[in-house]
Amino acid sequence: MLDRQRSGDKEFLKVKQKSQVAWQQWHKLTAEFKAKVALGALRERSTMAELCAAHEVHPNRIGEWNSQLVERAMLAFSADAGAAPAELVDLAPLRASIGQLTLENDFSRSGAYFR
After folding, report:
1. Calpha distance 74→101 (Å, rounded)
2. Up-side HSE of residue 104: CA atoms within 13 Å toward CB?
3. pLDDT (0 to 100) of residue 8
4. What radius of gyration do the chain's Cα atoms show?
5. Beta-carbon neighbour count of residue 65 at 10 Å?
């Protein structure tokens, strides 16, 4: 019975090591890899099971990447690809400041201030 426990512990450690390796591999996935797999899923040339087997990735991950790719596809065709959407700025106070500074500058150039 003691031999079974020891062999069970060894098997447990092997499974634990495999899960740690899988976890480390998951953290090494690059954006290029994710895009490649998501594009493969969008093309539908192979089944989800084939993609999972070929890239050793869980189907839920591929589904997440696929939905992210579809949601962000419009950014590829925007005017500023890669830039965040611009925030709307109220220009009225800025234009008022510009006008005031222009008047002060013109006034000081005319020499009326120093007379």
Report:
1. 41
2. 6
3. 58
4. 31
5. 23
d(Cα 40, Cα 55) in Å, to the nearest integer? 11
Q: What is the pLDDT of residue 85?
A: 55
Share the mean pLDDT of the chain: 77
Element (H, E) at 2: helix 2-27
pTM exceeds cut of 0.85:
no
Query: Is the Cβ–Cβ distance between 48 and 41 less than 8 Å?
Result: yes
The DSSP annotation for 53-87 comes to: HHHT--HHHHHHHHHHHHHHGGGGGSTTTTSPPPP
> Contact 62/41 with Cβ under 8 angstroms?
yes
Nearest-angstrom CA–CA distance, 36 and 45? 13
Read off the tokens for 100.
């005031």
